[in-house]
Write a structure and sequence with these properties.
By secondary structure, the chain is an alpha/beta fold. The chain has helices spanning 18-28, 54-62, 101-109, 158-163, 184-190, 235-242, 248-255, 298-315, 322-351, and strands at residues 10-14, 33-37, 49-52, 73-81, 87-100, 117-118, 123-129, 132-138, 143-145, 148-151, 174-182, 193-198, 204-210, 215-223, 263-265, 277-278, 281-283. It is globular. Bound molecules: flavin-adenine dinucleotide.
C-alpha cells in the first residue's frame, strides 16, 4: 500500500475494467475520492480470462492482492507443439497466473466502498472550462463533476474520441476466437502448463490455458487474410474446417464448447496517440494503448498504468499540478508500452509468415 498522503482530488474514472478498478483501488485504499462509471449493468465477462505476468502480478501485489495464492492459478510453463502433438519448444514462466476476468474484477473490488462503481452509465461527453474538464456527462442524463477524469473505457474509448485524440482504429490482421469450457480432466492434465499448437505453414494456432478450477480457456488465432473471418453463426463450421489437422486433444476441447458464448476478438493494431492527456483528463489501459494479443500484455500493462497513475494522483498537490503529473505518467509508461506494441507487431509478422520458425515464447516480458 502507498504511504504518501492522499490528495483531496475527486477522481472520476470511466470504465470498470481491470484498469479502472485497479486505479480506483489504489485511490480508495489511500482514502482518496474516486467514482467509477461503467456502461454495463454489472461487471462484464468480456475477455474471459487473462494470463497475469510478473509485471501485472507486481501491480496487483502493490494493491494488496495475492496473485498465485488467493487469486488465480499458477502457470509454470508454456509448451509449443506441432500438429502431431510433439513438443517443439518449452519455456518456463517464472511468475504467471491464469485468472478469469470475473475473478480479477471481484478481487479488485474486495473491500471497496459500496458506491464506488456506478453501473449503467454510458459516457457521452465532457463539459469544459477552457482546457479543464469540469464534468462527465452520461447518456442517462447524469452529470458528474470532478477534478480529474480518467478514461479507462477500453479500446474503442469514447472519452478518447471526446478529446479528439483518436486516429481511425486499424484492425489487426490476426483475429482470435476465445471461449471457456468446463473440462475438469483436461484442466487437471494441463496442470500448470499453457499449451499452444501451431500450424507449420499457415497463420493458425490454438492455445489452451488451464484455470485450475475445472475450466479451460482456449483461443484460436488466425491470419484473417488467409482465413476469412467468420460471422459469429459460422464459427462452428470455421473451426471444423480449419482445425481438422489439429491434434485430437485440441479438437475435443473445441467440440464440447458452447460456441454461442465464444468471443470473436477483432484485434486492433494502432500507433500510440501523441499525447495521453488533455488538461485534467488522462487516458489509461486499452483506451491509451490497445495491444496485439500475442504479447499477453494488454491487461498487465493496464494494471501497471493504474498503479503508476494512482501513485502520481495521490502525490499531486492539486489540480494545477496535474499536467506535470500526467507528463510524468506518460514518461514512465510510454517506453514499456511501446516495447510491447512493437513486440506484438513482430510476433504477428512471424505468425503470418508461413514456414518461418515461430517457436518463440508467446508473451512479452
Ligand atoms: C476476447 C478477449 C481476450 C483477451 N485476452 C487477453 C489475454 O489473454 N491477456 C491479456 O493481457 N489481455 C487480453 N485481452 C485484452 C484485455 O482484455 C485488455 O487489454 C484489458 O482488459 C484492458 O483493460 P482496460 O480496463 O483498459 O479495458 P477493458 O477491459 O476493455 O475495460 C473497459 C471498460 O470500460 C467500459 N466502457 C467502455 N465504453 C464505455 C463508455 N462509453 N461509458 C462507460 N463505460 C464504458 C467497458 O464496458 C469495460 O468494462 C483480451 C481481450 C479480449 C476482447
Amino acid at each position: 500500500m502507498l504511504s504518501v498522503p492522499s490528495a483531496d482530488l475527486r477522481t472520476a474514472i470511466v470504465g470498470a475494467g481491470p484498469c479502472g478498478l485497479a486505479l480506483a483501488r489504489g485511490l480508495w485504499l489511500n482514502s482518496a475520492q474516486a467514482a467509477v462509471f461503467e456502461r454495463n449493468g454489472g461487471p462484464s465477462p468480456r475477455g474471459f480470462g487473462f494470463l497475469l505476468l510478473g509485471n501485472g502480478c507486481d501491480a496487483l501485489r502493490s494493491l494488496g492482492l495475492r496473485p498465485g495464492e488467493s487469486l488465480g492459478h499458477r502457470i509454470d510453463a508454456v509448451q509449443i507443439l506441432n500438429l502431431d502433438g510433439a513438443v517443439l519448444a518449452e519455456y518456463s514462466l517464472p511468475e504467471a497466473v491464469a485468472v478469469t476476468r470475473s475473478q480479477l474484477v471481484n478481487a479488485l473490488l474486495e473491500g471497496a466502498p459500496k458506491q464506488l462503481v456506478r453501473f449503467g452509465h454510458q459516457f457521452d461527453r465532457f463539459e469544459w472550462d477552457g482546457e479543464m474538464a469540469t464534468a462527465a456527462c452520461f447518456s442517462n442524463g447524469l452529470r458528474h463533476e470532478a477534478d480529474v477524469f480518467v478514461a479507462a473505457d477500453g479500446v474503442r474509448s469514447q472519452c478518447r474520441q471526446a478529446l479528439g485524440a483518436t486516429s481511425r482504429l486499424r484492425s489487426g490482421q490476426v483475429k482470435e476466437i476465445v471461449a471457456c469450457v468446463r473440462l475438469p480432466t483436461v484442466d487437471k492434465e494441463l496442470g500448470g502448463c499453457f499449451r499452444k499448437v501451431l500450424h507449420p505453414t499457415e497463420g493458425l494456432a490454438v492455445g489452451l490455458v488451464p484455470l485450475g478450477d475445472g475450466h479451460v480457456i482456449w483461443f484460436v488465432q488466425f491470419d484473417s487474410q488467409q482465413f476469412p473471418t467468420p460471422w459469429m453463426g459460422e464459427v462452428g463450421s470455421f473451426l471444423d474446417r480449419h482445425l481438422a489437422e489439429f491434434p485430437e486433444f485440441v479438437r475435443d476441447v473445441v467440440i464440447v464448447s458452447d460456441l454461442s458464448r465464444a468471443h470473436l476478438w477483432h484485434t486492433v493494431d494502432e500507433d500510440l496517440p501523441n499525447c495521453w492527456s488533455h488538461g485534467n483528463v488522462v487516458l489509461a489501459g486499452d483506451a491509451a494503448h490497445p495491444l496485439l494479443p500475442f504479447t499477453s500484455q494488454g491487461v498487465n500493462m493496464a494494471l501497471e498504468d493504474a498503479v503508476v497513475l494512482s501513485r502520481l494522483l495521490l502525490e499531486s498537490s492539486g489540480r494545477d499540478a496535474l499536467i506535470a503529473r500526467f507528463q510524468e505518467y506518460e514518461r514512465l509508461r510510454r517506453p514499456d508500452v511501446l516495447r510491447c506494441l512493437e513486440a506484438g507487431r513482430g510476433m504477428a509478422r512471424d505468425f503470418m509468415s508461413p514456414g518461418q520458425a515461430r517457436f518463440q515464447i508467446p508473451v512479452a516480458a
